[in-house]
Amino acid sequence: MNEQSASLNKINHQGMLTLTVMITTIMQVLDSTIANVALPHMQGNLGATQDQITWVLTSYILSSAIGMTLASFLSMRFGRRQLFLVSIVGFTVSSILCGTAGSLNTLVLYRLFQGLFGASFIPLSQSILLDIYPKEKHGYALALWGMGIMVGPIIGPVVGGYLTDAYSWRWVFFVNVPVGVLAFTGIYLLLDEIKSTEKSPFDLKGFILIAMFLSCLQVALDRGEQLDWFDSLEIRAEFAISVLSLSLFIFHILKKENPYLRPALFMDRNFAICLVLSFVVGAILQSPLALMPDFLQELMNYPVLTAGLITASRGIGTMISMFLVGRLIGKIESRFLVLIGLLILSYSLNQMTEFNLLMGYWPIIWSGVIMGFGLGFIFVPLSALAFSTLVPAYRTEGSGLYNLIRNIGGSIGISLSTNFLIRKTQMFHANLGEFMNPYNKTFALSGVSNPSMYKQQDFLKWNNKITQEATTLAYLNTFKAIMFFAIVSMFLLFLVRKQSSLSGEIKPDMKDLD
């Protein structure tokens, strides 16, 4: 009887801990999408421009990427439980600060802290699930965890839209407080501390160099359009620092005995190519998510909640295809699954290039479902390809780098697509504006034959119309550019080795295994 009771308690403990780490994972993923639909409201409230308001997204993604690479070292040095608890507290406090921010600069600063503290949630949650479940149930545990990852993009825009519509955009951050308290309580009561006996040295110099490279590059991309790119001394300095930091980082890891990233990782051809594809997927994943809320609310005049519901359709498509891919991945080669995903993705982006302001919302929902369906065909097979030839000694380090590259792709993708959108809007407005003059018959008013009798408000009305048309054309061209980006990336798959010939081809450097 006692053994049966102990077994039941163990199962309950396992289930509650699984639920707790899933809640924490969902909270972190949710915050990468929940703020998207609230961006237009933040922009108006904080007095930001269209390119400036995207810093709210890119700062979070960038700091999450940088912080994720520290999770393994910090958990070994201070303990997994302690790191988890500190991260939850820091994430929750940062969320409160984000909700109380009075300016764009303070909001971006608090989002940086939020991303840094939340960066460890995903790697810690994954490792905890693998520890509390026996090896034969690892697939089941990771499937549960994967469902949590998928739920975030679905409910994020909906929750963000509802909170912004019913209360204000500040509640998209305040909502993390009760979730954070619940997660902290669960981890504190249920997770036992496991300290690693391994005390590997931390390459502080390598970390600083890669952080400087990424940060300066991101700031330059975010502020480039506003400061007229290389005409600005600041932008030239930021690009120079980023190039110098990257050069020093490469030289450093080639010379150091235990570098921040081991060069042998990049000698694996499959892994190196999949890193590039991971960057592309990150850019394609985040760019439309950042652009669509503004398109729906500012141009199509949808309420913020409706925009959130429409945006959530992509997550539904991803969840459907993830279940399908789970059955196909052992039967069809991963390269072909990724190719199918990129083709579906390109088709959905092509549909988006045909959007117009007179259509209903169903074409937008349908294209979102198709895009999500395509992304689901890419995530798992691409990960399988990336690690198929990588020796076990490199997998932990490779996992951190793989996720880092995908996040950086998302952050840079948002900046580049926003800058492209602004440039195209200016170009189309200038082209269309050439025809706006009192002698153009297009602008003739009924019963008015003298051009001098045109009123200023008539031209202001037409200028607003031209601005709307120019912005719409700019969005369609941006979607087309993202589509070409996806099409070109398909050719990289031809450089990936077939899975049937993968075994025994990559030999580890024994010095790196010491």
Per-chain topology:
Layout lengths: L1 H29 L8 H8 L3 H4 L1 H14 L2 H8 L1 H21 L3 H15 L2 H12 L5 H29 L4 H4 L1 H15 L13 H20 L9 H23 L13 H31 L4 H8 L1 H16 L5 H19 L9 H26 L7 H39 L22 H34 L25
What can you see in these coordinates?
The chain is mainly alpha-helical. The protein folds into 3 domains: 1-197, Growth Hormone, Chain: A; 204-255; 262-436 and 452-514, MFS general substrate transporter like domains (Growth Hormone, Chain: A, Up-down Bundle), CATH 1.20.1250.20. The chain contains 20 helices and no strands. It has helices at residues 2-30, 39-46, 50-53, 55-68, 71-78, 80-100, 104-118, 121-132, 138-166, 171-174, 176-190, 204-223, 233-255, 269-299, 304-311, 313-328, 334-352, 362-387, 395-433, 456-489. The two termini are 49 Å apart.
CATH superfamily of the largest domain: MFS general substrate transporter like domains
Radius of gyration: 25 Å
* Silhouette: globular
CATH class (first level) name of the largest domain: Mainly Alpha
| SSE class | mainly alpha
CATH-defined topology of the largest domain: Growth Hormone, Chain: A
- H and E string: HHHHHHHHHHHHHHHHHHHH
- What is the makeup of the main sheet? none
Quote the distance from N terminus to C terminus: 49 Å
Count of individual domains: 3
Q: What's the count of strands?
A: 0
User: pLDDT below 50 for ≥5 consecutive residues: which ranges?
Assistant: 1-11, 445-450, 500-514
Give the number of helices. Answer: 20
What percent of residues adopt helix (DSSP H or I)? over 70%
**What fraction strand?**
under 5%
